Structure formats: structure tokens, C-alpha cells
């Protein structure tokens, strides 16, 4: 089903949830009294770092892969990704028994490359820029004829990601706000799709690194502004918004908040120390922005999506040398 503008409706989210249930975890929501006291808010952490393949992106990838007809599936799937979508699509393709080819930046974390290969995916490397990624991918798709599953601008992906916030609304009563990291905007768009339908009073905040703040600048300008190769410790948030995700962000997001590199690393370390959660720098950006903007969240019940746990343990950002 689609709405009058051709975008998914909530019934599509319900159908996607049924489709992907055998291949995902219903991840837990955890709390921390220490972080509640520190922020002055009641925080609820939706732990997608415990998800299959270690990230929320397995939701959208599974929805896309298991929604393919048999003829299309035979040609396999292909994508470009800095990591979590790559390994999630490889995971889903492996479960369906079809081929998966992924274009990844040569600088992507080794842990993510190893996971892609472990799930049976084939990696083709590119330079760490959006232009190089798309150029190399065009050649790969021409060679393979595979179905392109975009990391975030694919409506099948957005609908799958929307199942995360659907679960969170079922798990936590009376949320006032949800904060999720934003790069290309797939997870935030999924939140918009779900919450605008079943919890329209919940404010939606997107959290972004200052050094990769194209979504923030787009939001303020009223049109997409794309950076080609930003540099940030939050490696999962380097990609720009596209037309489908911009539709959701521009229509439903309350605000986009940013955090510095030091603030992101400090928030990541805080969660590791206090909650014992292995999570990526990208996942720490929401807490970093809450700590930076206490008046925005004080006294509110706030859902935070911890998007992934595929961190390179040999290169933690607070390690020296």
C-alpha cells in the first residue's frame, strides 16, 4: 500500500514486521538511573546493538530481501555501504540463499568488512567519498545485474527500519520524544513513518556530528545540502540525505541537534562505563546531544535508539597511540 504521494503507510510497517520476524531480534530497552540523574530526563535505550548482525539495518535489509519475487532474487542483491547496511544485507541474502555484492570504502572498519565476508558477502572496495562509492557501484551493478538495495533511500529499507520504533512504543509507555542518529536518514525516516501514525505527539529529534552536519544544514536551509567526504569518528553517519529520507525529515522531525567529536567520544565512553554496552561512536551521538541540550529534554521521557555495536575493538576512539 502507498499514500497519495507514493510513500508507505503504517499497514506496510505491520506487514514488514511479520515478514522479518524470523530473522531479527525484538531488542530490549534498558535504563540507567545515573544517566537519568545526569540529564534530568528519563532515558530509555532501545538496544539495536544486540540486533542480528549487530545493527538496526538488518530490519530494512531483511524486508527488502524477503520481499523480492523469485525471479529478481535469483540475480542477487547489491549495495554500497560503509558497514552496517553491507553486513546486514549480506546476512539477509545469506538467509535467503542468494548472492550479495557490496561496495565498501577501503577505510571502513575491519570488523565490518570481516562480518560482511562472514555472512557470505563479496566486497568491492572504493575510495572514502560518496562520488567514488556511487561510481564503483554503477560498474558492479552493470556486471552483476543484481537488485540494488540502497542503504537508506529505498522505501523497503525505511519501512523495515520503522519496525524498531514500533517495538519501542510497545515497550515504553508515554514517550515524549525519540532521539536517533542521522546520516542518510533511514532510521529517522522509519521513526517518522511509525510515530506520525501511532504516536503523533512524540517529538522526533535527529542527532548528528558537527563535522558531518549536512542534515542539520539541510534542515535549516529547507533543501538538501550534501557533503562528499566528511571526516568524523561516527563513521556510520557520513552519508547525505536523499529525496525519500528528506521527505520524512522535512515533514516530521522536530529538530536536528549536533555534537562535537569530543562530546561524541565522551558519551560513548559514558555508556560503555555506566551501562556496559558495546556500541559504535555513531550510536553515542544522541546521548551527546541530550547532554549538550539539557533544557530541551529535562523532565521528559526520551527514547534513544542505540543503532549498532559493530565497533573495531582494536581502535577505540579513546585509545592513545
TrEMBL record:
Entries under InterPro entries matching the protein: BHydaspDhtse, TrpB-like_PALP, TrpB-like_PALP_sf
Source organism: Brevirhabdus pacifica
GO terms of molecular function: ATP binding; L-serine ammonia-lyase activity; magnesium ion binding; pyridoxal phosphate binding; serine racemase activity; threonine racemase activity
Gene3D superfamilies attached to this UniProt entry: 3.40.50.1100
Coiled coil: none
Family: Belongs to the serine/threonine dehydratase family.
GO biological process: D-serine biosynthetic process
Protein name as catalogued: Serine dehydratase
CDD domains with a match to the protein in the record: Thr-dehyd
Keywords from the UniProt entry: Lyase, Pyridoxal phosphate
NCBIfam families reported for this sequence: BHydaspDhtseBhcB
UniProt cofactor(s): pyridoxal 5'-phosphate
Highest taxon above the source species: Bacteria
Amino acid at each position: 500500500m502507498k499514500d497519495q504521494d507514493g510513500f508507505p503507510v503504517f499497514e506496510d510497517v505491520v506487514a514488514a514486521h511479520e515478514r522479518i520476524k524470523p530473522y531479527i531480534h525484538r531488542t530490549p530497552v534498558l535504563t540507567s538511573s545515573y544517566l537519568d540523574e545526569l540529564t534530568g530526563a528519563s532515558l530509555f535505550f532501545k538496544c539495536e546493538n544486540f540486533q542480528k548482525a549487530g545493527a538496526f539495518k538488518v530490519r530494512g535489509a531483511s524486508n527488502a530481501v524477503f520481499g523480492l519475487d523469485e525471479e529478481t532474487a535469483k540475480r542477487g542483491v547489491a549495495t554500497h555501504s560503509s558497514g552496517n547496511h553491507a553486513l546486514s544485507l549480506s546476512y539477509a541474502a545469506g538467509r535467503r540463499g542468494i548472492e550479495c555484492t557490496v561496495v565498501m570504502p577501503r577505510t571502513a572498519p575491519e570488523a565490518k568488512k570481516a562480518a560482511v565476508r562472514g555472512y557470505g558477502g563479496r566486497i568491492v572496495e572504493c575510495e572514502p567519498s560518496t562520488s567514488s562509492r556511487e561510481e564503483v557501484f554503477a560498474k558492479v551493478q552493470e556486471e552483476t545485474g543484481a537488485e540494488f538495495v540502497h542503504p537508506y533511500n529505498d522505501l523497503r529499507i525505511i519501512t523495515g527500519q520503522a519496525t524498531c520504533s514500533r517495538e519501542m512504543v510497545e515497550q515504553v509507555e508515554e514517550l515524549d520524544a525519540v532521539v536517533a542518529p542521522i546520516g542518510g536518514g533511514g532510521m529517522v525516516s522509519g521513526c517518522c513513518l511509525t510515530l506520525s501514525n501511532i504516536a503523533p505527539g512524540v517529538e522526533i529529534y535527529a542527532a548528528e556530528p558537527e563535522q558531518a552536519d549536512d542534515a542539520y544544514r539541510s534542515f535549516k536551509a529547507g533543501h538538501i545540502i550534501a557533503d562528499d567526504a566528511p571526516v568524523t569518528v561516527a563513521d556510520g553517519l557520513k552519508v547525505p540525505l536523499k529525496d525519500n529520507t528528506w521527505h520524512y525529515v522535512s515533514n516530521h522531525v522536530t529538530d536536528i541537534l549536533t555534537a562535537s567529536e569530543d562530546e561524541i567520544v565522551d558519551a560513548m565512553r559514558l555508556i560503555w562505563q555506566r551501562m556496559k554496552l558495546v556500541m559504535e561512536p555513531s550510536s553515542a551521538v544522541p546521548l551527546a546531544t541530550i547532554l549538550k541540550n539539557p533544557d530541551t529534554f529535562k523532565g521528559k521521557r526520551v527514547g534513544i535508539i542505540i543503532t549498532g555495536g559493530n565497533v573495531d575493538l582494536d581502535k577505540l576512539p579513546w585509545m592513545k597511540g
